[in-house]
Each structure stands twice: as C-alpha cells, then as structure tokens.
Amino acid sequence: MPLTDLVVRKAMSKDKPFRLADGNGLALLVHPNGSKYWQFEARDWCYAVRKILANGVDPSLARKVTKAAKLESAGNSFEAVALEWFAKQMTVCSRIVATTCRRACGLNTFPATRP
Questions:
Q1: CATH no., domain 1-41
Q2: Cys-Cys with 34: which of 13, 15, 61, 104 at CB 3.0–4.6 Å?
Q3: How many CB atoms lie within 10 A of CB 83?
C-alpha cells in the first residue's frame, strides 16, 4: 500500500534507522536524527526477478545461463581464440607440432571436446 502524505510527515525517528515501504521498490528511510530519505530500488530488476520466479526458475541460474550464452555467441571463449591461434600456427610451425598442441588443449582445456 502506498504511503500517504500524512504517514510520511508523522514518521518519527527511532533509535535505529528504519524503512517504510511504499511499494514497488520505493521506500522512505527515517534516520535517528529525524532526516527522511526516499530510496528507490531497481524496479525493473525487481519486476524481472519476480517474473522469473513466477515461472519457477531460479534467477541466479537464469543469469548464469544468459551470461554463458552471451559469451558463446560472442565467440570470445578460450576455445574459439585458441582454435584461431592454432590455424595461424599451422602456417608457421610444422603440422605435427600444431596438431599435438591442439590435441593437448582439446584434452585438457576445452570442455566441449573432452572424451
């Protein structure tokens, strides 16, 4: 329920700072010295998290999946950069050395190519 003008004016200070919620991420913070400050939380973020929770999905997991998808689509993963480097090395060093190096990285560092 939104705070009324009367409630805001009559909010008296206490020993510790306290908050009066106005709803949808807006709150009045009342300090012991009597000062009052409006705090605005990220409403868009709150709405997004509530929507994700309503669908039965963990917001932390959803954020991690989104971040991983962005990295993969950007092509800036370690594997993509390493494969580009290997392609350049094929022209500089012997084919056997480049293939051995690529195989070692594939077995030890590239999670998608592990056996």
A1: 3.30.160.390
A2: 13
A3: 15
Residues in the chain with pLDDT values less than 50: 113-115
| DSSP run (H or E) holding 47 | helix 43-54
| Residues 37 and 28: beta-carbon distance below 8 Å | yes
- What 8-state DSSP symbol labels residue 19? E
**Tens of pLDDT along 44-75?**
777 888 888 999 988 888 888 888 887 777 66
CB 28 within 8 A of CB 22: yes
User: Tell me, what DSSP letter sits at residue 62?
Assistant: H
Any residues with CB less than 8 A from the CB of 7 and at least 6 apart, and which? 20
Radius of gyration, alpha carbons of the chain? 27
What are the backbone angles phi and psi of residue 24, rounded to the nearest 5°? Answer: 55, 35
